[in-house]
Amino acid sequence: MALIHKATVMDEKAIRQALRRIAHEIIEHNKGIDNVVLVGVRKRGVPLAERLQVLLKEIESIDIPIGILDITLYRDDLSQRQDQPMVHTTDVPFDINGRQVVMVDDVLYTGRTTRAAMDALIDLGRPASIQLAVLIDRGHRELPVRADYVGKNVPTSRSEEVEVKVREIDGQDQVDILGPGGE
Fold first, then answer.
1. How far is CA 8 from CA 70, 99, 117, 162, 177, in A?
2. Maximum separation of any 2 CA atoms in the chain, in Å
3. If DSSP states are collapsed to H, E and C, what string results for the chain?
4. Is residue 64 within 8 Å of 56, Cβ to Cβ?
5. Measured between alpha carbons, how far is 18 from 23 in angstroms, rounded to an integer?
6. Is 88 inside any structural domain?
7. What is the side-by-side order of every strand in the sheet holding 174-180?
8. pLDDT digits (tens, 9 = 90+) for 117-172
9. Does 83 fall in a domain?
10. Which of 63, 90, 152, 172 is the most core-located residue (most Cβ within 10 A)?
11. Is residue 140 included in any domain, yes or no?
12. Quick one: which of 56, 50, 23 has its CA closest to 133?
């Protein structure tokens, strides 16, 4: 069944404002960012983490480390996929032991991607804490996972999809809801 555009829930301005708010919340929650590192979950979590890094530097004048996490081999649906997954590199060029790690992803849905990302992080060390920042929380959890920082809560049905576009990958910033369409 084809999915059709149902609604645009965030435009470029709304995304920019949400990320600025998340940056301030990260600073407040951690009482500064001296011990904070960012890790973007591939694919669209990476440019969002890069933007947060820039915002945090603008606010606190501290250039915090940023890493890239590929969770492909940690996914719990690998045996159910018919296509071969594309494995990319994880690049976390700093020690996460004892650090406040803020994982950044685009959408929180069932919680399975977040669980895979936490497994991948734990293989790299023992952070003081793992916090989760997402642009969109759409509900429908299958695992007991919650985001610490949310750009926007978007209630959806299971038949709908949330499509996040970022200019670094897609050429534009926008969040859309797609749903089943007519034939």
1. 28, 36, 28, 10, 6
2. 54
3. CCEEEEEEEECHHHHHHHHHHHHHHHHHHCCCCCCEEEEEECCCHHHHHHHHHHHHHHHHCCCCCEEEECCHHHCCCHHHCCCCCCCCCCECCCCCCCCEEEEEEEEECCCHHHHHHHHHHHCCCCCCEEEEEEEEECCCCCCCCCCCEEEEECCCCCCCEEEEECHHHHCCCEEEEEEECCC
4. yes
5. 9
6. no
7. 3-10, 174-180, 161-165
8. 999 999 999 999 999 999 999 999 999 999 999 999 999 999 999 999 999 999 99
9. no
10. 90
11. yes
12. 23
Question: In this structure, what token pair is assigned to residue 113?
Answer: 């991607």
Q: How far apart are the first and last CA of the chain?
A: 8
Domain count, the chain: 1
42-101 tens-digit pLDDT:
899 999 999 999 999 999 999 999 999 998 877 555 445 456 556 567 889 999 999 999
User: For residue 142, is it within any domain?
Assistant: yes
Residue 62 sits in a domain whose CATH number is 3.40.50.2020
